[in-house]
Amino acid sequence: VAEREVHLARAPIVRIDARGALVQVLPGDVLPAMRAVPIAAELPAVPQSLDDVVTAASALGLSPGATVVVAPTGAVPVHVMTRVLLSLARASVTVTHLGAERSDESLAAVPFRAARAAEAGEPDVHVRVRLGGYAVARGPRGRDTTLPRVRDAAGSLAFDAAGLRTFLDAGTHATVALEAMATVEGADVVRTAFLVAGSGASMTWLLP
Asked: How many CB atoms lie within 10 A of CB 41?
């Protein structure tokens, strides 16, 4: 997902045989290249699904139970990723993972689900990703603990990953809800998701 376009592609299910070669497990068409679907420069203030993304996602013909990964690229803001998630839901595509590209161009992914707050239930831990840092709380009546951004080795302001890990490690929890300001970069939310996944909790991204 980029700020002005969404790239869609299918990948085959493969295994490695005794000779170390990749073998396609299930037959089926795989797009030879990613299909780019443009996103308008002007979008409604309230996030809603994007018709062109809905149409393109519906045409993929994914089978039930397919693994679907959404990954941000560049400085795409959260409100654009939210629109894409809403579009995929409208196309009856269930997104199963958040992804991030590694330096070797492979894709790392963590399981999650996207849901509106009313559908998600009460999480054990709530993590809000804000421009100024994290706000974290335990339980439905827990008070917010603020974890402001910190200076990294290069002197730049970064989200306090160590502080979030310490907070998560300090208690037991089975469910974590992620929520993010519309203007936060999607990549920052995905990095947060990887931290949450490390705690062993199931994760829900709360949509507006």
From this structure: 7
Q: Are strands 133-138 and 125-130 parallel, antiparallel or unpaired?
A: antiparallel
Instruction: Identify which of 124, 57, 66, 132 has the alpha carbon closest to the alpha carbon of residue 96.
Output: 66
* Residue 133 Rama label (left phi>0; alpha psi -120 to 50; beta): left
Helix (H, G, I), strand (E, B) or coil at 205: strand
Q: pLDDT tens for residues 110-157?
A: 999 999 988 888 999 999 999 999 999 998 777 889 999 999 989 999
Q: Are 161 and 129 in contact (CB under 8 A)?
A: no
Torsion angle, alpha carbons of 185, 147, 192, 42, to 10? -20
User: Strands across the sheet with 97-101, in order?
Assistant: 69-70, 97-101, 107-111
In whole angstroms, give the CA distance from residue 41 to residue 169: 41
Taking 60 as the threshold, does the pLDDT of residue 16 lie above it? yes
Alpha helices for the chain (secondary structure H): 51-59, 78-90, 117-120, 161-169, 186-197
Tokens standing for residue 134: 């994290």
Contact residues for 61 (Cβ-Cβ < 8 A; gap 6+): none
Confirm if 100 and 107 have CB atoms less than 8 A apart. yes
Radius of gyration over alpha carbons of the chain, in Å? Answer: 18
Pairwise CA distance, residues 139 & 146, whole Å: 16
Asked whether the whole model's pTM tops 0.85, one would answer: yes
Q: Structure tokens of 158?
A: 């970064």
177 phi and psi angles, rounded to 5 deg: -105, 130
